[in-house]
């Protein structure tokens, strides 16, 4: 399984990377991206199976990034502390698996 981590806070990327490496060695992190406006091209080029996507980011939030795609052929795991985004996330086919 291949993924990309997209978050504007470096400490969040480092924490998630550490968690994945220590608990899910089958997940290959293809790249991480601090700037959401660069993430679109990165996703198209690397073709991940899924992305970890922060919602609150400057310039282009996570939802705006997703609307740039004609077709989303990867899974999305939203990484946010804001529960107010739940309904909008569901519209992008996000599911709670707990």
Annotation keywords:
98 residues, alpha/beta, 4-stranded parallel β-sheet
Summarize the structure.
With 98 residues, the protein is of the alpha/beta class. It is built from 4 helices and 4 strands, in the order βαβαβαβα.
Secondary-structure topology with pairs:
Layout: E1 2-6, H1 10-23, E2 28-33, H2 36-46, E3 50-54, H3 62-67, E4 75-79, H4 86-91
Parallel strand pairs: 1-2, 1-3, 3-4
Structure description:
With 98 residues, the protein is an alpha/beta fold. The chain contains 4 helices and 4 strands, in the order βαβαβαβα. The protein has a 4-stranded parallel sheet, with helices on both faces. The longest helix has 14 residues. The C terminus is likely disordered.
């Amino acid at each position: 399984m291949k993924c990309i981590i997209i978050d504007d806070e470096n400490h969040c990327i480092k924490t998630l990377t550490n968690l994945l490496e220590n608990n899910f060695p089958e997940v290959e992190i293809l790249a991480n991206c601090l700037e959401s406006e660069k993430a679109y091209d990165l996703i198209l080029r690397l073709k991940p199976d899924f992305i970890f996507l922060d919602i609150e980011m400057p310039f282009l939030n996570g939802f705006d990034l997703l609307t740039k795609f004609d077709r989303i052929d990867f899974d999305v795991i939203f990484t946010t502390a804001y529960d107010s985004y739940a309904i909008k996330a569901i519209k992008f086919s996000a599911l709670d698996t707990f």
